Amino acid sequence: SRFTKLNHPKAEFEELSSSSVCIFGGFSAANQKEIFVMKEPIFTGSAVAIITPMNDDFSVNYDEFKKFIDYQIDNGTDAIVICGTTGESSTLKTVHHLEAIKFCVDYVNGRVPVIAGAGSNNTECGIEIATKACEYGVDALLLVTPYYNKCTQKGLIKHYTMYHDATDKPIILY
Cβ–Cβ contacts within 10 Å for residue 44, how many? Predict the structure, then answer.
């Protein structure tokens, strides 16, 4: 498992947040707070949600993209977030979305972790992007809560669980 489960009857999330990047929790049937802490943080420090520069024909401008990536790494960013909502993910064709992720992973070449935006209003489409991103070698996935289709809490849990079950990388929710 990617997470360690801690059971604390009166634990506060803040008590653990200084030692971990990713925490989530809830209450068990016995009304005991269950807290899950990521075993190995993806990165510490700050991650840059990088924009995706475009050409006039709406293709990705990879020459400019290289400059953006190098600038961020040269100036000390601890991770690159590619194709998040800041990176035009909702306006990219799926093929360009995947090409940009692959390019970023290959170009960064392990200098810093790469976190790929794979969130979608369409769970099936998002999982397709997420599984390909994992094949390309991303270090983690970034998933936005579906912002157009409003679902129930049960539906949202199922949406995220399906991503979890389809991939083997850490998932950051926002």
Answer: 9
